[in-house]
Amino acid sequence: MTAYEIIARKRDGKHLSEEEIEFFISQYMENNIRDYQMAAFLMAVYFRGMSEEEIFALTRAYLESGEVIDLSSIPGVKVDKHSTGGVGDKVSIVLAPLAASLGVKVPMISGRGLGHTGGTLDKLESIPGFQVFGTLEQFKRQVAEIGVAMLGQTDTVVPADRQIYALRDVTATVESIPLITASIMSKKIAEGIDALVLDVKFGNGAFMQEVAKAEELAHQLIKVGNAFGKKVTAYLTSMEQPLGNKVGNWLEIAECLDCLHGGGPEDLLEVILTLTGEMVFLAGQAARLEEARQMCREALQDGRAFRKFLEMVEYQGGDVKSVQEPEHYPVARYLETVVAEKSGVVTGFDTRQVGLAAVELGAGRLRKEDDVDPQAGIVLFKKIGDRVEKGEALCELHTNKPDSLPNATMRLLQAIRIGSDTPQPSPLILKRIQ
Ligand code: URA
């Protein structure tokens, strides 16, 4: 068996055996297969796809490249949530402490911003002092003691994905269902969870823009999760416009605090209640989904979720005062209002452009080595269906890089579409899949 033969077989659309896939990944991790060979293999998979058995074998090979966390000594059902990524998607930051406040154990390993989408780790790090890196022992201890931990991927958890993901990012091979499935599910299975809720985004701000593709991905993720003995439920949710009204690291934490105090924008709250309700239900803390959702609503309103959030912030070294008194958090030096050039109704968003504008303002990375600016981002005043008058504020840009303002303004004027017909918005939550 050689790397060349395996690449050629996939190029020609042949079925790869479990041994061939295991060989390819393990030899790559030992540096016997080079990046250029892996890149050719990834492109062959991108075009030829993979069967269910091949995807399962790829996920297993990824998993075997590193450590699987054993949380079996911790009592309770361990449930996590994973989103395929979006703009303004800050759901995890409310959901994790909310689920934990209702008795679910939440061992969450999150990622950084990718492309036009934001990352949970970058958002959490905008809380002064908040540590997102620790050892697996610390991670386990925190889940055992307070029921929730939100950390970054360590070097020992699925190292094959870390390396291959970086290669996919620069070889245009991210948007492949087999590759996304192995990447996501290996990391989630390695966390030691019992069950998983997936938020599979569709729409122009998602990686899988078409509903049919998002649905195919959801089914594939569920099949692999089930094959590894995990209970998995997926929701297809809309990324036709940013979620909530704020995009950017601290701005999104501030919006999460509104939710944790029982408020927050309606669309964001709806996704939080749906996904957290599902976690509570999968953990067996409620007999019915509707009951689980009501429990979530109450825990947001009576302060239990916020108290759990404070406990987590304190445990991970964050400045508790900053989230208790967010009004004292410093605001970016440059604020600019973008105003409508005509009157009408907001008919739609180019959500990817909103994400890219936020990156440009400093909220994300233009190069891998860049730091993100916690204060940078966008506050939206209008969403789909809202009436707007010429000269009225559409959004406010926050930045410490004044040079970025003209371009970001232009992107937003193009991204927020104003027309005359009130649009028929696509459903925020399209489907529950099991
Ligand atoms: N998120 C991941 O973790 N992996 C992918 O391949 C895509 C999104």
Average pLDDT rating: 95
Instruction: Give the beta-strand count.
Output: 13
CATH class of the largest domain: Alpha Beta
Please state the overall shape, judged from the principal axes of the Cα atoms.
globular
Question: Total helix count?
Answer: 17
User: Widest sheet: strand order?
Assistant: 1-4-5-13
Terminal CA distance: 38 Å
Structural class: alpha/beta
Major beta-sheet overview: 4 strands, mixed
Give the CATH topology of the largest domain. Answer: Pyrimidine Nucleoside Phosphorylase, Chain A, domain 2
Identify low-pLDDT runs: none
Q: What are the bound molecules? A: uracil
Indicate the CATH architecture of the largest domain. Answer: 3-Layer(aba) Sandwich
* Helicity level: 40-55%
Strand-and-helix sequence, N→C?
A: HHHHEHEHHEHHEHEEHHHHHEEHEEEHEE
Q: Nearest-angstrom radius of gyration? A: 22 Å
What is the assigned CATH homologous superfamily of the largest domain?
A: Nucleoside phosphorylase/phosphoribosyltransferase catalytic domain
Strand content: 15-25%
What does it look like?
It contains 17 helices and 13 strands. It is of the alpha/beta class and 434 residues long. The chain folds into three domains: 47 residues, Transferase, Pyrimidine Nucleoside Phosphorylase, Chain C (Transferase, Pyrimidine Nucleoside Phosphorylase, Chain A, domain 3, Up-down Bundle), CATH 1.20.970.10; 246 residues, Pyrimidine Nucleoside Phosphorylase, Chain A, domain 2 (3-Layer(aba) Sandwich), CATH 3.40.1030.10; 89 residues, Aldehyde Oxidoreductase, domain 3 (Alpha-Beta Complex), CATH 3.90.1170.30. The strands form four sheets. It has a four-stranded mixed sheet with strand order 1-4-5-13, sandwiched between helices. It has a four-stranded antiparallel sheet with strand order 6-9-11-7, with helices on both faces. Strands 10-8-12 form a three-stranded antiparallel sheet. Helix 10 links the parallel strand 4 and strand 5. Helix 5 crosses helix 14. It starts with a helix and ends with a strand. The relative contact order is 0.14. Uracil binds next to helix 9. The site of uracil has 7 residues, from helix 9.
